[in-house]
Design a protein that fits this description.
Blueprint (H helix, E strand, L loop, with lengths): L1 E12 L2 E13 L4 E5 L6 H8 L7 E6 L2 E2 L7 E4 L3 H4 L6 H5 L8 H14 L15 H14 L4 E5 L7 H18 L2 E5 L3 H7 L2 E6 L4 E7 L15 H13 L11
Parallel strand pairs: 3-8, 3-9, 6-7, 7-8
Antiparallel strand pairs: 1-2, 1-4, 4-5, 9-10
Helix pairs in contact: 4-5, 7-8
Length: 257
């Protein structure tokens, strides 16, 4: 569904051009959940912005359904980490969720908003204002706004990075349920190894400077996944170990005992 062929990105810097990505090759299939990991500054967000048509590539080709990406493709929606500044505080939750679909007929618009709020568990909060909600709820509003647009592809840039551990775990499980319900393709940028292994069908690790794909790893853990049961599985621990090593962390020998 999304394909990168020899993707290269160079950005201007204070001391001259900065080479961010170099000949990146990877693809994402329809309905797949793919996480992108890498150390700070490795180009994760840059890659996501290119996929969303928000940042032009310097070289190579990026396509969605075979068509080159030169601007935001139809059906591709980005969810950002900074939920606070992504929501309009003077609009209710319902009106924030409706922001991207205001040109639709009223009945269809309201139906989509209702469906999206139900999927993220906020049906009873539609008349509230974002500033009255917790951080986790605000992020759910942003996700609901994306879902109301019925995206084919959801690009998520560390959406749970600023949340506490319990809220993050709850939203991870909610995201899994939403993806299973909608079949949406998800590309998920994160710096959290455990999160990536837990959520993904496949993950890729960006490595080097400029960065390239240092590891592409299938995650064949059974679904639905559980925060306790899945993370106690031997194959989950083995996958996590492999990703940490790919990121350059020194870890002790992994054992199934």
């Amino acid at each position: 569904m999304i394909s990168c062929e020899d993707l290269t990105v160079t950005l201007p810097g204070a001391s001259g051009p900065v080479h961010i990505l170099d000949k990146v090759r990877f693809s994402v299939d329809k309905g797949e959940f793919v996480s992108v990991l890498g150390t700070s500054g490795s180009g994760k967000t840059t890659l996501l912005r290119v996929l969303g048509g928000l940042q032009p590539a310097t070289g190579g080709r990026v396509s969605c359904d075979g068509a080159g990406i030169s601007g935001p493709p139809d059906g591709v929606v980005t969810v950002f980490q900074d939920y606070t500044h992504s929501l309009l505080p003077w609009r209710t939750v319902r009106r924030n969720v409706a922001l991207g679909i205001e040109k639709l007929p009223k009945s269809e618009r309201e139906g989509r908003v209702d469906d999206a709020l139900a999927m993220v568990g906020l049906s009873e909060r539609g008349d509230e204002y974002p500033w009255r909600l917790s951080g986790g709820m605000q992020q759910r509003v942003q996700i609901a706004r994306a879902l109301a647009m019925r995206p084919r592809v959801l690009l998520m840039d560390e959406p749970f990075g600023a949340l506490d551990a319990m809220t993050k775990a709850a939203l991870q499980d909610q995201l899994q349920q939403v993806q299973e319900l909608t079949g949406t393709t998800v590309v998920f940028v994160t710096h959290d190894v455990e999160e990536a292994v837990y959520l993904s069908d496949r993950l890729v690790v960006l490595r080097g400077s400029p960065a390239n794909i240092g590891l592409s790893l299938d995650v064949p853990l059974p679904r639905p996944r559980d925060q306790v049961v899945t993370k106690e599985r031997a194959d989950y621990l083995e996958l996590r170990h492999e990703v940490y090593e790919a990121l350059g962390h020194r870890v002790g020998p992994w054992s199934k005992t």
